Amino acid sequence: MSGPLSGLRVVEFTHMVMGPACGLVLADLGADVIKVEPSPDGDNTRRLGGSGAGFFAIMNRNKRSMAVDMKSPEGLAATKRLLNTADVLVENFRPGALDKLGLSYEALRQENPRLIYASCKGFLPGPYEHRVALDEVVQMMGGLAYMTGPPGQPLRAGSSVNDIMGGMFAAIGILAAVQERHTTGKGKHVQSGLFENNVLLMSQHMAQFAISGKEAPPMSVRQVAWPIYDLFQTSDGSQTFVGVVTDTQWRLFCAEFHLPELAADSDLATKPQRVAARSRVLPIVAAALRQYDKAALMEKCERLGLPFAPITRPIELFDDPHLNASGGLVPVTLPNGAESKLPALPLSFDGQRPVQRSGLPTVGQHNAEIMAELDALLG
């Protein structure tokens, strides 16, 4: 139950989402992640409100907290001792912030050549690397906001997608460097960029243009490639997404929902024909589906093997039966003392989800424990 990365020591200098997300992936997989926080108040993310109120709670389980004043000689010396025992350093502060403290990759590799130094930044090296970046910034400049909103109204996606994925890619880079270190015995400087992550998300639209010569419009007005791939109203006032994307599904769909006239229409025999006839077919399909409430419609679609989805708000996920039955939500004691449950990593190993070994640390909770370990390791 300790996890596949048990024995890997990670020292984390992070705040907000991107860096902590990288540490969370490693911690949930069993690494010993030590979060170094400024003394006495700790990571400012602990005190965020509004849309940032949940950042600390979701990204910092399974970590230990060491609170130090790195601007003091004693605090900096303790931090350097800790780094001499580390396999990995993760940071997501402004470029040069750790360098000023003598904690650059070049400086630390002299003392610990096996150290893997992971920097989670707004941009990878290049003309933009010194700009300040946020998820919102790179969504706007990287095409995601354009593709998400309606024409003329760019809209950020409804989650910190680049921060979370950027942290995930940093973790992937770290694991690749750990594997390489088995051969070389040396660490490496790994960098992950928010902007570059966002550009990867846009790669399908870039490739579409390269292949077809046609620019992809925003998703809200895109040309759908499937005959039935839409939201439908149900009799109880809900909405349900339903997809009918193959010829086999079309025949089953028409039979189950009593649409013999559509099944018999020779102009609807193939998928391209049905795509071309969407404007004619969709009102008929919508009227048929409106006869069912949401539960009945989903039951039919599941039985037929059709793609379907209810329109769910984030707060409804707390009660999702699949998440609760499969270990997809882990218990957590929030900073205010309330008990809740939050999403686990979307992974399983031999059918088992990564476990929560420890909850959210308080500021400096593990100082004495970590210092005793350093004394034992380093003398």
Descriptive tags:
379 residues, alpha/beta, Rossmann fold, formyl-coa transferase, domain 3, six-stranded parallel β-sheet, 16 helices, 11 strands, 15% strand
Low-confidence stretches: none
Number of strands: 11
Question: Overall pLDDT, averaged?
Answer: 96
With strands numbered from the N-terminus, the spatial order across the biggest sheet is 3-2-1-4-5-6
CATH A-level architecture of the largest domain: 3-Layer(aba) Sandwich
Q: What does the radius of gyration come to? A: 25 Å
Quaternary state of this entry equals single chain
Q: Main sheet? A: 6 strands, parallel
Summarize the structure.
The protein has 379 residues and is of the alpha/beta class. The chain is built from 16 helices and 11 strands.
Q: In terms of topology, how is this protein built?
A:
Layout: E1 9-13, H1 18-28, E2 32-38, H2 55-59, E3 63-68, H3 73-83, E4 88-91, H4 105-111, E5 116-121, H5 135-141, H6 144-148, H7 161-184, E6 189-193, H8 194-201, H9 203-212, E7 228-233, E8 239-244, H10 247-256, H11 260-263, H12 271-276, H13 278-289, H14 294-304, E9 308-310, H15 321-325, E10 329-333, E11 339-343, H16 367-378
Parallel strand pairs: 1-2, 1-4, 2-3, 4-5, 5-6
Antiparallel strand pairs: 7-8, 8-9, 10-11
Helix pairs in contact: 1-7, 7-8
